[in-house]
Amino acid sequence: GAGVSQSPSNKVTEKGKDVELRCDPISGHTALYWYRQSLGQGLEFLIYFQGNSAPDKSGLPSDRFSAERTGGSVSTLTIQRTQQEDSAVYLCASSAGTPGVNTQYFGPGTRLTVL
Amino acid sequence: GESVGLHLPTLSVQEGDNSIINCAYSNSASDYFIWYKQESGKGPQFIIDIRSNMDKRQGQRVTVLLNKTVKHLSLQIAATQPGDSAVYFCAENNYGQNFVFGPGTRLSVLP
10-residue block means of pLDDT along chain A (115 residues)? Predict the structure, then answer.
């Protein structure tokens, strides 16, 4: 009965490097979300996966950001050529089904620092 | 862990008093609302939800009120405790769409 897990918990990288952030949703949850939370800000939606449907990528801030979800479970958020403004906490959440029907549950987040 | 929301609106209450945290939502078509609590260094934690066919829902020490006329949501916490200190976010959802989060309010419980 584990909750949503994310790894790493902290990531420090140099500007221009690529990073991969991982999310393990709650088992059986079909929906998975990525959000970004900058210091002093609320949650910014990035991308949403629902079952086998095409993901909603409308929140991705640039083409340096991409995400995939393999086998309907684990998801990886990739940021290429990181910039200092990418520094934030990246949160993953999952829910059992369609948003608005089922509550979403959050992981602890990955704190990304770009030097 | 990292502190979030350093520049958020802050509500300070005395321990044992009731707290009321307010949220204005944006989409009149939203039909599902959630309140989350976020402690420093942690992800948001579900507190209580409410659907648009209701105007009030109660949990343990918490009550959510929904006023669709003015698109307003509030979270009431009874007998506030030091452990309630956190940032509180409301989120709205229009069925099948993404959740949209409010900016958050920091609750500070004074001894």
Answer: 90 98 93 89 88 88 94 93 96 80 86 97
